[in-house]
Amino acid sequence: MPMQKPLPVQMLDLINGYWVSKMLHVVAELDVASILAEGPCTVAELAASMDVQAERLVRVLRALASVGGFQEDESGRFSNTPLSETLCAEREDSMRAFARMMPSSCNWHAWDGLMAGVRQSVVPFEVQKGSTHFQYLEQHPDEEAVFAAAMASVSGAENPAVANALDSTGIRTLVDVGGSGGHLLSAVLHQHAQVNGVLFDQLQVVEAARLAPFLTAPALAGRVAFEGGDFFKAVPEGADAYLMKYILHDWNDDQCVQILTRCREVMAESGQVIVVDNVIEAGNEPSWGKLLDVNMLVLTGGRERTAEAFAALFARAGLKLDRIVPTECPLSLIIAKAAS
What we know:
- The chain is α/β, with parallel strands linked by helices.
- It is 46% helix and 14% strand.
- It contains 16 helices and ten strands.
- The protein has a seven-stranded mixed beta sheet with strand order 6-5-4-7-8-10-9, with helices on both faces. Strands 1-3-2 form a three-stranded antiparallel beta sheet.
- It is globular, with a radius of gyration of 22 Å.
């Protein structure tokens, strides 16, 4: 049985965690894993196809090999491990885009403001960049494209789990509020053949989604509508369900109530709102949601929420919490109906 590391060494690993994040960012940008998917390479061979210094790249790969990303053999050739294979660009469940986005300068510098975000009622990203996170992305299309790809990347395992957990009984029309490129809506419509969908997001996002592959499959012909708009002002009317994944966690409570109220105002009489987010629970078990919660504090001023916090938001919007449905991924379906 492996000997447990002394506590100071365990703490050292936590303190130095950002080293690994930044190295993963570099190899994701260089797409090293995709090259190694063709077979083992020396660093000289890798460097020949990249604008990098072989002597320095080997140091990065050697360090990542020590934590399970990549593997070096006795002849100095590097190959993928099952873990590093998740960075291959062509994999359906590729995490490459997420590794390119999350430790990028756009997000990285915002985390420098975490102390200010803890001490004051400010959003660190806005202090660092002078605009909101979403305004910044709109002004930097290249980074917005990486962000969109990253969201699709992390959703690869989540969306089938969400679609499987959804009870579509009584749902004829479902609006995906803030549905981005349509990844989740596509999974839902493929899983639930009787449901028609509306992709609703900012106009430029919806126009890009029209050209993306997710909602243009022959099996979905005639079942998808596209609408652009601002969900703080209005959402498409008369649907049986309003789905929003990773939307409420972007915003503060008052803003969330605005979004939920717009849905409550126009949903069908027996309609429902289906929020897909983390539900924060008591206890000290490892939690992706609790870590993501701090990322939202830094980037958008939003948050992950407890079941009680969701119930309070719903009540303010004329809704009531109906049930929470766990999925096979860390996310849950938090379902609300009209308050009586």
